[in-house]
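Hey L., structure's done. Input below.
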Amino acid sequence: MNSDDLTQLSLAAFDQVVSATSGFRSRPGQRDMAERISSALSGISLGEHDDPHKAIAVIQAGTGVGKSAAYLSTTVTMALARKTRVVISTATVALQEQLMTKDLPALAAALESPFVFALAKGRGRYVCKLKLERLVGLGESDGMDDMFEPDEDKPPPRTAYAKQMEGEDPEERRMKLYGTLADALAGQHWDGDRDSLAEQPDSRDWSAVAAERHTCTARHCPRFRECSYYNARTKLAEANVIVANHDLVLASLGRKALPELDNCLVVFDEGHHLPAVALDQFSSAMDLSGLRWLDKLPKTLQEVSEKIHVDLAQDVTTLAQQLKAAMHDVGRLVMDLLSVNQTGYDAVHRFKNGVLPDALVDPMTIIFGHATGLSKSLEALGAEVKLLAKEDPSQAVTCSLLYAKLGQIAPKLASVVETSSLMLEHGPQPLAKWLKSDTSSGLVFLTAHACPIVPGDLLRRSLWSQVRGAVVTSATLTSCGSFDYFLKEAGLVNLPHASTLEVESPFNYATQGELIVVETEADPKNAEAYTREMVIELMSDLAQIEHGALVLFTSRAQMKAAVDSLPASLLEVVLVQGQMARGRLLGAHQARIEAGSPSVIFGMQSFGEGLDLPGKLCETVFITKLPFSPPSDPVEEARSEWLRSVGRDPFTELVVPATGIKLLQWTGRAIRTEDDHATVICYDRRLLKTTFGRRMLQGLPPYAVSRRVSGVSMAA
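Output:
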C-alpha cells in the first residue's frame, strides 16, 4: 500500500470513529490534526533501511480538540495496515487509565479491523514468585534464607517511619504481607501486579519481592513459566497497541522490553514532559551514609563463588573495605560542606561550574576505581552463574537464587560507579553536581548527585536517533506563542523531518472566559508584602464564590498564609491539598457542588495540570503569582550558570518560556467544555506591566482581558 492509500485509509478510519461518537460535534481542529498525522507518517520507512524516511509530527492541540481520538484512529489504522504496532507513551497514570478504560475500547468498537491493546509496566510493578516463596518458607532450605531482605540502608518513607515510631514491629508487618501475597498468588486471586492490590504495600517491604532486572535469570529461572512479569510481557507481545509511560520508554531503550522504535509508530501524549523525564532518566545519585551493604558485599561474592566453584579474580574484601573508607571520607567532607550537625537538617550544596573542590577529587577517584573493580567482579560472577544454569538445568533453582543475591547489590554498586564517574567528568558543557542531606526519616542521609543539563542533547542522541515515525502532542507545547522553546528542550530543533502544527481549541475563549489581572501595590518580588496584599484580595474574591473554584499557589508558605487568613465563613468551604488524598479531596469537592454548596480547592503547582473540573466544579481559577520555578533547583541553577558563562541570558531563554508553559497549563483548568463559562484572576501585575509578562500573555488563549486596581475593574 503506497503512502497516499495509507493516508486516505487513516483519514477514513478517523471519520468513522468520530461519526460513531455519541454527542459528536464537528471540530475542524481535530480533523486538521488527523490529516497532519496521516500525511506525516504514511511515508516513513520501517525496519532495516540504508537511508530511512522519518517523520515526527509535533502538534499542540488545545483543550477540547479531542486529540486522543485523532491520533488513535489514524495511527492504529496505519499500524494494522503496515502490520506493525503503536506505542502510546503518557506522563500520567490518569491518562493511561483513560486510554485503557475509555478511549481504546471505544476505538475497538468503532473500527472494523479488530486489534489488541495492553498496558506496559516496568518489572518492579510485578512480584518475583521465587523471592516470595523464599520469604514465606516455601522454598527448599539451602542456607540462603537471609537472601531477600528489605533495604535497611534506605531511608524509610515518612509514613512507614511514623508507624515504626508508634511501636509496630516492621518484621511482623512484612511477614504478614508476604504471607497474604503468597496465599493470593497460590489461590489465583492475584495476578502478581502490585497495582491490582487493594492496598499498596510499603515501598521497602515491596522491594524485597519485586521482580527486578538485576535479580532475574529470565528463562533460566525455575518459575519462569509462572512469572507475573513475563506473562505480562507475553500479552504485550500479542498486542497491536501498547500503552506505556515516558519513563519506561526511555528506560527501555536498547533493552527489547518494548517494540524497537525503528519498527513501530510512537505517540508521545503529554509530550511537554519529555525533557524533564529525560533529565531524570540520565541523572545519577549515590548514598554516602547507608554503607552496610559494603560489609555484606565481599561475603556475598565469596559465598556465590564457592557454591559454583569459581575463583574470584580480585581481592574483593580489601576492595570493599577501601571503597567504604573512601566513601566515609567523602561523607565527612560532605557533612562539613553542608554544615550538618547531629540533629541534621535538609540542605543542598551545588558545585559551581560542575567543578569539585580539590579535597574531593582524590577520594572520588578512589571510589570510582574500587567500585569499578568490584562491579567487574560481580558481573563476571553473574555471567558464570547464568552459564551454569544454562548448562545444568538441575541447578536452576540454586543459580536463580544466587543470581538474585548478586542482583541485590548490583544497583547500589552501579550507582556508585556511574555517579563517581560523572562527578569526575569535565567537558565543554558542565554537568550539574550537588550534595544533599535529607532528614525526613528522622536520621541524616547524605547523597551525591550528578546530572546533564541539556535535555535536548540527551533526547536527540538516545531517542530521536531510533524513532522512525512519531507524534508528539499536548495542549501545552508552545510558549509565548512559539514552538521554539519546546523544540530546543526536546532535541527536535532543526531536525528536517520534524514538523509543527498548532490546532486551536474549539472553545470561544473571548465569550466563554475572562482574564482579570489584579494590580497590587506591592511588588511581587517583595514576597512578604506581596503575599500579605494578595491574600487580602483573595479573601475578598473568595467571599463571592457561588460554586466551584481553584486557587493555585507557588509556595507552601504562600498557601499557609492564605489558610491562616481564612475567615470563619470560609473555613468549611476551602479544601487544602495535602489534608487528604487527592482522589478524596476531589470527591469531596464534587459532592459539595452537587449539594448546592460552594467549594474552593487550595492547591500547589501539581494541581495546575491534569485536573478536569468542568462546569460548576470550577468557575474561577485564581493564580496567586506567576508560576516561576523555585530558583534553588540544582540542575536549573547549573544550566543558568553555564548559559551566562557563554554570553546567553537564561531568564529570557529558559525561565520565561518555561513559566509561559506553566501559565498556559494553569489557565487551562478554567474552561473544559464548549458550555463552560469561567474567570481567571491573576494577582501578579507583571503579566501586563512587563515585557516578559506580555510575552507569556501572547501564548494564552484569547480571553477577554481586564485589569483591576483597588477593586476597580477596567479594560486592559
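The chain has three domains: 3-116+239-279+455-503, 128-221+286-319+357-431, 509-715. Confidence is low (pLDDT under 50) at residues 158-166, 712-716.

-- N.
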